[in-house]
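Most newcomers find our protein records easier to grasp once they have seen one. Each record describes a single protein and holds just a pair of labelled lines. A learned vocabulary of local backbone shapes supplies the integers on the structure line. Nothing more is needed to start thinking about how sequence determines fold. The record below serves as our worked example for the rest of this section.
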Amino acid sequence: MFRALWAAQLASNVGGWMQSVGAQWFLVEKTHSPALVSLVQSASLIPVLVLSLVAGVLADALDRRRLLVVTTAASAIAAAVLVILDVADALQPWSLLTVTLVLGCLTALTSPAWQAIQPELVPREEIPAAASLGSVTVNAARAVGPAVAGVIVGFTGPWAVFALNALSFLAVLVVVYRWKRPQRVAPLGRERYGEALLAGVRYVRAAPGVRRILLRAGLFAVPACALWALLPTVAVDTLGLGSGGYGLLLGVLGIGAVAGVVVLPVLRRRLSPSWLLAGSALVYAVGMAAPAIGSTLLLVPVFLLTGLSWIVTLTTLNAALQLTLADWVRARGVAFYLLVFMGGQGLASLVWGVLADQVGSAETLLIAAGLLVLSGLSVVWLPLREGTGTKDRTITALSSGQPQLVFEPDPTDGPVTIEIDYRVRAGASAAFLSAMKAVERSRRRTGATAWTLERSGDDDHAFREQFAVRSWGEFTRAGLTRWTAYDHEILDAALTHLEHPPRERHFFPADVTYPSQAAPSGPATATV
């Protein structure tokens, strides 16, 4: 199934690159404006800024197969509209960019689900290899699609590549529709949209390893995208190439990227992920500055290395992210990554296009190359965090049973405050406090909206942890479906410093009533 979906994605990416070349070349001939040409990339990527988080929640909450069927069918229809407009000689820059924007919106809705299904198809130890092969579909398409598109556009015009893109969506639709994905029943039912979105935000805020991956993605993507945004105008104005020559340059980049998949396992054995990111950024900066020299012959070997560095960065970041995210929040985490990496490229492409209108495309590439050098050097101070991608994210229930309360709360009751009393062994207070810093992050990742740790003023060995969750259902969901083996390790490390097991209590708002029984007398509290 992985192989079938991989082949379908390759076909779709080939069609997507053909469409990009056709759209950019249409605008080059119609307007000859770098800013307008760069809008093709912006229209494709900016929707990620608006829709990626929505798409992440949908991909975690809905059946991912059905979501992919709907979005792929809609993409095929949108691509067909572009064919009809061009054949009818009714295609204008504004209508081209509008349809490109629609396709970008559908891609934004599809991407988190597409990436999140990888761990369903391959075992954990093969995720880095699967991520590499996933990147191959993009970059092999870049090697084939633009070169073929350049020839086709030269003979027939853009309509033919638009038609091939529509057919590529149909190929994906057939494979996804035939996928017999096992039914997955959420033990606690489907999360509400708002709650699911907030849970994803809390997870990322409390996951330093994920945040560092997002930072490295943004530092690379913003300057690196200048090459994709401005290469069409540089090919014409600086290098004097036609559509075929432009397609050839993109093809060389794609060939270098595919070669990178072969080289990457060797590089992984010799270099850490952080140093891979640093080296690939510096090599890519050289490739981005090369077109300013104006030598097409020199560009071929340089662009091979540039494509290789692009695949090294994407695969390293993607594999680190997939191995770091817990399964229950995987699509939402991927959505944040796409928001930074793809959305950042969309906004930055617009900026690079406007700047190129003012100072020239070749000069703008040199500026972006300088920023990318700084990005590569920043790895010294901002590397990927230690242990990234190596923690056990298997979901393991926090406790064997539900707390025995004096009443039966409704899942929507809340907020709920949980108090846990600890008695620490003599001489272990400092170690306990250090261990509880990691416990705080686990609590916040799995649903806590507030967290404190207090020390008794009457007993030197007594501590009290207090955290709040939005509802009883959120607390139950955290204990049963969000707590990972790594979170267990963190909590167990703190509990080793105690004299005896802790005591946990659960507090509800005092005005909550329970129709099934009389309101409890006394304070609304339950003790386990």
Observations:
- The chain is about 70% helix and 5% strand.
- The longest helix spans residues 127-156.
- The two ends are 47 Å apart (CA to CA).
- The chain has two domains: 2-380, 416-527.
